[in-house]
Amino acid sequence: MRDAAVAEQQSYDFSAVEARDILADRQRGWVGFTKFLTWAIALTVLVLLGLFLFVA
User: Fold this and answer.
1) Where are the domains of the chain?
2) Above 60 in pLDDT, residue 4?
3) What is the CA radius of gyration of the chain?
4) Among candidates 38, 20, 40, which has minimal Cα distance to 28?
């Protein structure tokens, strides 16, 4: 039964993808990544500074 459902699909519908859409998506990903990285580095510095001041 499962093979019959797979065999019935003969074609696929693809939507047109523009290069500008791909670039915009990559740019949003890059901006999100750099924002995350900035906050992660700031948090790491604060934790290390806190350890230096209160533990050492």
Assistant:
1) 19-56
2) no
3) 24
4) 20
User: Side chain identity at 9, as an amino acid letter?
Assistant: Q
- Residue 7 amino acid letter: A
**Entry pTM:** 0.63
What count of residues does the chain have?
A: 56
Token readout for 10 is 């003969």
Distance between terminal CA atoms of the chain?
68
What is the secondary structure of 4-54 as a DSSP string? HHHHH----------HHHHHHHHHHHHHHHHHHHHHHHHHHHHHHHHHHHH
